[in-house]
Structures are given as structure tokens and as C-alpha cells.
User: Fold this.
Amino acid sequence: MMLLTMALPVPAHSQEVRGKALIGRWDITVDRDGTPAPSWLEVKLSGFETLVGSYVSTEGSARPVSEVVFNDGTFSFRIPKQWEQGNNDLVVSGALAGERIEGTVTTPEGKTYRWKGVRAPELKRSGEPVWGDPIALFNGRDLTGWQATGENQWQVKDGILINPRAGANLISERKFEDFKLHLEFRYPKGSNSGVYLRGRHEVQIMDTSPDEHPSSVLYGGVYGFLTPSEIAAKDPGEWQTFDITLVGRMVTIVANGKTVICNQEIPGITGGALDSNEGEPGPIYIQGDHGPVEFRKVIITPAR
Assistant:
């Protein structure tokens, strides 16, 4: 008697995955007519052979990539526009170049730029951090220790750091690696700001009702990546607090005394980051180009 057998799928780990060398996270720098701009890509395997991913352009949040087409060392994908001008998809094409990747990106308005990428560091830490002494980054008197990214609209009045209107961002002159950051801030109704950790990962400061469903792009989220467990915001005009601990890629965010993100991994950079050099220390960067915001304390405790 003949026995019929059914062919079973071959497990992914036992077959050669097409595009295996592309799988992982990549820190990308785009050459925008001589000006470097940060970007980021993650490629994953879905099933046995389909490559999918997530992409952060030079602005905006991480966007899903439904398929990364890979063939003979080259790859490409396209995604709908987000905040860009123009009516077309954003199109990325690239190729493996040893341990790097490189290629072009064409924006929805039809501009094409070259880019290069390196593998993103894992940023794993061994052991618990040993904390140093707290440092007041804002001295309560003036902007000593800070630099504006353009024409400065920031001011200090009665011990409060004030951004009265949309304008320049504010960047600390000192750079940090692992740290605890304490912020005390308030904003008017409808305003939108944020603080970038190491100048690369934005924690959202935004007028958000506690009734809103939590999202990574709302109050307390790591923009585009990590969603808080709840919206722990107070009413506009009230003083609020963030206590943020960043060790490697692992972040904990306590908003107004409530832990809303607990030791979660930040996969990559936020659009609008200062650079994509994730393995390097970076500054504290306060977003001032969206809406008004005020700070009365910015205190950082770096790891030794």
C-alpha cells in the first residue's frame, strides 16, 4: 500500500533567507545637497522569505514598510507620504556594500538624495549604572549652557525658561550617554513640544486629554515607537513632571508620578533628530519649533 505524505514547510532557520544580510537596524545619513540629515531603517523577516520593515525619514515618525523587495544585493521599497510636500510615494533604493548599505531616496515632491547607512549599535549594558551628581542644565537665570538652532526666541523670566512661540529649538552644550532626567514644565492649551534624549529620541510633550487613547505620538510617548500605558497629563497651564531614565536603549518614563513606559527598548531615532550616530553621547534637545512651552527645572543625573 502506498502512503501519501504531505510536504511540510521548511523552518526558516534551516533554509537560506534571501536578503539575510539586510535584516536588522540601520542608522542612515542622507546627503541633502551637502547637508547631512539623519534617517533610520529596520528590516525584518516575515514568514519564510518576505522582508518587511520600518522606516524613519528625515522628519516625522517611524512608518511601516509592507515589503522590502530584495534581489541580487539590491533592495527597494516605497511608502506613502507623511509630512512631506508633494503627491507621490517616498521611494528608497539601495544596495549592500560590505558591512554598510547605500543608495538613494526620492521624496514625494520628486527630489532625489544619496544616503549611506551603518548597522545600528545594540547599546547593551552590563550591570546596573552608578549614578553621578545631579546637574541643573537650566540655571534659572539665563541660557548659559544652551544653544538655539536658529534665531532665538527663548527667554528667561522670573526663573522660568520660556518659549513664547514657535521658533528655534534649544540644545544643551553638554552631551550625555546614560542618565536620569527630571523635567518640570507647563504648556498652554493646544500646544505641542518635546524633549529629545541624546538629541535623537523624542519624548512627546503635548496637550493631550487623559480620555484620549494612548499613542506614541501623544503625551508621554517616545515619538513613533513607544506608547505610554496611559495619558497621565494634567490640564494645560498646570506644572507637570517627567522623570526619564535612559540606559543604553532602555527607557523608563514617569509622568506626573505614574510610570507610563517601563524599561522598554527604543528601536531607533525620531525624525528631526540631530544625527543618527546612536552609539555616541548626545545633548538634551528641547523642541521649540511647534508651540509654546515653559520649563522651571531641567536636571540631569548622568551615569559615571
Summary: The two ends are 74 Å apart (CA to CA). The chain is about 0% helix and 45% strand. Residues 1-6, 10-15 have pLDDT under 50 and may be disordered.
